[in-house]
Amino acid sequence: MNQLQEALRGVAATQELKEWTRRRLVRERTRRRSAGRKGLAAAVCACLLCLLLGAGGYRFYMSPVSYISIDVNPSLELGLNAFDRVVQTVAYNDGGDEIAARLSLQNMPYQQAVDEVLSDQVFQSYAAQGNGVVFTVVSGDGARLQAGLEGCSGYYASGGHSYLADARCLDEAHTNGLSVGKYRAYLELSEYDPSVTVDDCHHMSMGELQQRLEQCHEGAQSTQGHGHGEHRHGHS
Amino acid sequence: MRTEEQANQAVEEYADLVRRLCFMRLKNREDSEDVFQTVFLKYLLYDGTFESAEHEKAWFIRITINSCKDSLRSVFRRRTLPLEVLSEEAAAVPEEHGALLEAVLSLPDHYKDAIYLFYYEGYSAVEIAEILGRKENTVYTWLSRGRALLRRRLGGDCL
Lengths: 236, 159
What we know:
Structural class of chain B: mainly alpha
Number of domains of chain B: 2
Oligomer: heterodimer
Radius of gyration of chain B: 16 Å
Strand order of the largest sheet of chain A: 3-2-1-4-5
Largest sheet of chain A: 5 strands, mixed
Mean pLDDT of chain A: 84
Shape of chain A: globular
Distance between the termini of chain B: 41 Å
């Protein structure tokens, strides 16, 4: 046993934490199953109503309720409807335009659509130059979509990272002409470096943004690690 | 969604691994326990299949590291931690290993992950690269820079 193994030998999950977690998982399972049943019933009613309402049903189906932003250098945003199917594909730069034009993602389940994007040759050529693909999820059920993304076959190979953002971040991103993924990264970077502007981010690739963020994180960590007792700058 | 039995089995199997990764990345018990539960919640919701036990373990490592990153970012955005709670987690470590742990915990996150996976979990650099989705050379660089920082701080063969 090496010294690190010796040192960490005492760090283990307590029975109490395990039990607490098990109980939470049971609660979550029950809640989701009953919500699922209610959701199914609601969906059936909604569908019947939609049939009656005709055009209203089409609008319901075509309305995005969740968004997944895929950024490497091409920035693409997928809008998902209540059934987790792609109903909107928006490109935020030339690379994104090129990929959106090559692929037909409409009505695809989101995991399949993400795999299509990740396996596209043009996308892969961009990804190879970048710092890993960044996925940003905006949804009322973000954890579930994140878990689904992490299950996509190309997720690990693409060096994927996933983040959650909220509806406000999404609105601000669109107002500023950026994908929500890039805008979230801008917000994070601006906490370290308030001189960065949205306009700067328009001219930076996602890889460059990620690189600057990593430098800021490492800088903040080494400041903390040297024990000067300073807070990381940029706290709000 | 996973069955209750699968979820319970996963808690039994991976609880210590997830706990140690949280310990390496996070600085206080509250965030650590939040992430611990989030990881198993993601497992419960994950519909994919695992090719082997090793694949499943690699998934847990990856998800835990990503969830820790998310937690640190939201902590950073939401609130400032008082300095005295930063070392709360480190109190669980035996005194004789305090210096080593302190040095490892002060490494930048990438170096820390690589050092932990290499020395504690016994993964090779190639396997770590696969788990973290990075190039092998990057992992070799993290390992060698991490070791150099530890040597500088602790001297000699500290691991």
